[in-house]
Design goal:
This protein is of the alpha+beta class. Helix content is 23%, strand content 18%. The chain is built from 4 helices and 6 strands. The strands form 3 sheets. A two-stranded antiparallel ribbon has the order 1-2. A hairpin with a 2-residue loop joins strand 3 and strand 4. The longest helix has 12 residues. It starts with 10 loop residues before the first strand and ends in a 27-residue tail after the last helix. The C terminus is likely disordered.
Length: 142
């Protein structure tokens, strides 16, 4: 069971908790909810710093894990660096495009490969845009 952090993307009445907090509104912690941790290992320990490798399911907050570790040690703990190395079928090693290959052709090739990893119906969905007035980009072949 894990209590999500107040500064998170979780919503109350359609607004992110983090947005409400930044406006100075009172926000109550969400109740603890079940999460999955498939593996957790200590990779490096050089006091006061340590490196963890965590394989977890969706909805898991590494910030909360680190905070809980600090509480168990009767101190505080925070994250200095966080790298997501895998999300669904995508891995950082296999699917991240290195900066020296940031050309429009390489980006298009990379997107084609990544879209092929989704089931047929999902690979043709339109991307959601963030700003009003922008048009959606279709992944379908034209």
């Amino acid at each position: 069971m894990q209590v999500p952090p107040l500064y998170s993307a979780l919503k109350r009445d359609g607004e992110r908790l983090s947005t409400l907090m930044k406006r100075g509104e009172a926000v109550e912690a969400k109740p603890a909810r079940p999460v999955r941790v498939y593996s957790l290992s200590l990779r490096q320990f050089q006091p006061p710093l340590f490196t963890l490798d965590v394989e977890c399911g969706g909805g898991f907050y590494v910030r909360s894990l680190v905070s809980d570790i600090g509480k168990e040690l009767s101190t505080c703990a925070s994250i200095q660096e966080l790298t997501r190395t895998k999300h669904g079928p995508f891995t950082l090693e296999e699917h991240a495009l290195h900066e020296d290959r940031w050309t429009i052709d390489e980006i298009a090739r990379s997107l084609e490969h990544c879209m092929s990893l989704f089931p047929g119906e999902q690979s043709h969905k339109k991307f959601k845009t963030e700003l009003p007035g922008e048009t959606a980009v279709s992944c379908e072949d034209k």
